[in-house]
Amino acid sequence: MATRIRRLLCAxxxxxxxxxxxxxxxxxxxxVEQGDTVSKIARANRTSVQNITRWNSLPNADSIEVGQxxxxxxxxxxxxxxxxxxxxxxxxxxxxxxxxxxxxxxxKAPAVSLIWPAQGDLIRGxxxxxxxxxxxxxxxxxxxxxxxxxxxxxxxxxxxxxGNMLIVKHDSEYLTAYAHNRALLVxxxxxxxxxxxxxxxxxxxxxxxxxHFELRYLGRSTDPSRYLPPR
Length: 231
Known about the structure:
Structural class: alpha+beta
Order of helices and strands: HEHHEEEEEEEEEEE
Strand content: 25-35%
Helix content: 10-25%
Number of strands: 12
Organism: Caballeronia humi
InterPro entries: Cell_wall_metabolism_enzyme, Dup_hybrid_motif, LysM, LysM_dom_sf, M23ase_b-sheet_dom
Region (Disordered): 78-108
Shape: elongated
GO molecular function: metalloendopeptidase activity
CATH class of the largest domain: Mainly Beta
């Protein structure tokens, strides 16, 4: 029973981490779901793995995440690559009574205004594979603040490997996560402002005192350092 509850918690937290990418997608795009592969998505959209990989600038065909938005039809004004006998499905036309979203996957994500969530040394950077964020080391109890204003959508310790964690949703595109805290000072559903203290640095589920900080754009892990001011 305990194992089943833990699995359910982990599944629900994975959904929360992709929550910023839950809005409808426009024609010619697809949002990755649990169990999807690039090959499966390509088959469903009558195109090739090579096209999906190229249109979305994926490092490889395995580098997709739940909640990520993928282009599944060729960009306007370009010819589809050879699909080995598969025909690329055209993007469906928008009907007058159907709501359509603007292009959810711009070539360059719009900047979000972040501040550093804690003082300390940058002890680990982002690589998108083994590290989905950055790690900041300092003394126990160091103040942790909200990197941007938003709503707390998770506060707890149900996800193994993250310890006491907070997730703050900033808008329909961005959220930030704060892990390994000694104490959580805000609750789920609470609105926080940029710079407001939300936690104290700790070492829960970690072998050293640090803050593990993640930024997600449309459900996909993004290097927070690109959005933080120099210091």
